[in-house]
Description:
The protein is an alpha+beta fold.
Amino acid sequence: MPGADLDEYCAANQPRFVDELIEALRIPSISADPAHAADVRRNAEFFRDAALAAGFTTAELIETGGHPAVYAERMVDPSLPTVLIYGHHDVQPVDPLDEWLSPPFEAQVRDGNLYGRGAADDKGQVWMHLKAVEALLRTRGELPVNLKLIVEGEEESGSVNFESLIRQERGRLQADVLVVSDTAIVAAGTPSLCTGLRGLAGVEVHVRGPDVDLHSGLFGGAVANPIDALARILASLHDPVTGGITVPGFYNDVHDPTEEERELFGRLPYDDAAFRREAGGIPATVGEEGWSVPERRWARPTLEFNGIWGGYSGPGSKTIIPASASAKITCRLVPDQDPDDIARKVVAAVLAAAPPGVTVEAEGHPGGRPVVTPIDHPAVRAAARAMEHVFGKPPLLTREGGSIPPVEMFSRIMNLPAVIMGMGLPDDAIHSPNEKFSLDMYAKGVRVVAHLWDELSSLKTESLVSAREQ
Length: 470
Ligand code: BES
Ligand code: MN
Ligand code: MN
């Protein structure tokens, strides 16, 4: 059976693969926190060295305006397809720390899972690719494709320097297909491939009233309250009946999923009780009229409040009219919504909803664009075969509600189609306390990746190129 030697090598070396990943998870590469800048750099060096050890022939840091990325390659034969792997080596902050059952940067195995920050998002999934390279080289002596690897250090803080990195390194990054493992499958026994990711747009709102906090007994009733004004503004952004977003023009560029896609989504197993459990024990799901829960999460745009502050929230009571109140808003976007355009429209809607007696300021923040990948692309079909080989059944096709802006950048700037093949599980708690990566998914992931290189190897480069030009 082809690949038996490979599967055997992976099984025999799995305990070491786990130990190595535990080492990689020790470095607190939190890109959002300037205090960890040196850790992010040290982490990049660690990944560079690991790429060389796995068998990449060159590996180096690429400097950016922010944290460094890692680039590695192993070019085998110009007539073989060239695959570019994208991942990220930075991680999310860890607070609240006291919710963690084991320290976030001292990863621990419990019940077949590895718990630690970055275990699934995304260090573990990058490590999967490194170990697939190692396994193929040790069992066969050479790779079946040309491989390039770019591991970013700023994904968790918005990939703000990545577009210029792509433009600058365009030549070196040239490839036939992009492969990204930074998402999850539908459920442990139900493999899936992701065919679309939402984009992101952000707005921050500040409402100002009096210069200073005022006594609410002396002034209340005659002075506008910034918290009340902010609450009204925020509440006006959704339609309470339909669940839709009221921002004028918000849906102008939204393309509905195709009938074929809606049909595929409808066939996916969806268990409301299980979903509510994954969502932290909520009593009911909510959302936009006319769309199923998977569609609301993957194919419809949203507007969310991420934080709100102002006034007094300490112990006891403090009878004031606060001087100000603020909120952070982000929208998840679907094709072809544009982050800057949406941020402008939200800012305009916020300003238009300002009640009298307060001053309202709102500013947009850089975001990322949504992306969909062609579901019938030969590389996506190759990935489906690789998954079927390892999971014993073919993957379902899904989309995800999260965002990985670089996937869209590679598509727009370099016309690179993406295989989005993540090995996380829905309950991995990425970005939350007690993030984990299933060791079974880790082991399967190494084999899926290695089999994917085999599958892609047998595709003619021309078929990948012509699929790209369609
Ligand atoms: N890996 C996630 C995105 C993800 C996770 C997509 C699971 C689909 C399923 C990524 O690291 C992430 O957290 N992205 C951010 C992007 C933002 C900072 C621009 C997000 O989605 O919030
Ligand atoms: Mn990620
Ligand atoms: Mn993330």
